[in-house]
Specification:
Radius of gyration: 15 Å
Strand content: under 5%
Order of helices and strands: HHHHHHH
Number of helices: 7
Mean pLDDT: 87
């Protein structure tokens, strides 16, 4: 259990600093920025209680808000995906999630289930971030393009990260 907590704390710190110091400076095609910090929420252990998932999701979101000068956009979006995460896990997991200490990684869930699980959470997160930041449908097509490019870029980075850092236990 201590190892899981230490792993989560290190992942939190690394993802926040990587997002703030590197990815926030990148603008793909002048329209999108990948948001890799959602990987922290995606990979929390499956048996993490709902209140702790919501709290951890809020804290990673507020950390990004503080460093990027936002006003609650990321904290709201992260808290929301932290809220829906258990429901998605129960859909894509093969066993009971209450007692599973395992993290829902690419190798644990399998490629198709992990891709579906992570895509839904990343899409919902990005959709909320862009909707709240624009808070208007006046630039619908530009916002939709930003959303799609950001989701694709984030998913590519998440999959690469999963392949590099979360090896199969076989």
């Amino acid at each position: 259990m201590r190892r899981e907590i230490l792993t989560s704390v290190i992942q939190y710190i690394v993802l926040v600093f990587f997002q703030v110091l590197i990815l926030d400076k990148i603008s793909l095609f002048g329209i999108a920025t990948p948001m890799i910090y959602v990987l922290f929420i995606l990979n929390l252990p499956m048996n993490t209680s709902r209140w702790l998932t919501l709290l951890a999701s809020f804290f990673i979101g507020i950390s990004i808000d503080i460093f990027s000068g936002q006003t609650g956009i990321h904290s709201f979006s992260c808290t929301f995906i932290g809220f829906i995460r258990p429901y998605l896990l129960s859909m894509y997991s093969t066993g009971s999630i209450e007692n599973a200490v395992q993290r829902p990684t690419l190798f644990y869930l399998g490629f198709s289930h992990y891709l579906s699980y992570s895509f839904v959470l990343v899409f919902v997160h990005h959709f909320l971030c862009f909707l709240i930041s624009i808070f208007s449908f006046s630039e619908f097509f530009h916002t939709f393009l930003r959303l799609i490019v950001s989701v694709v870029a984030t998913m590519i980075i998440i999959l690469i990260t999963e392949l590099i850092f979360f090896k199969s236990k076989d």
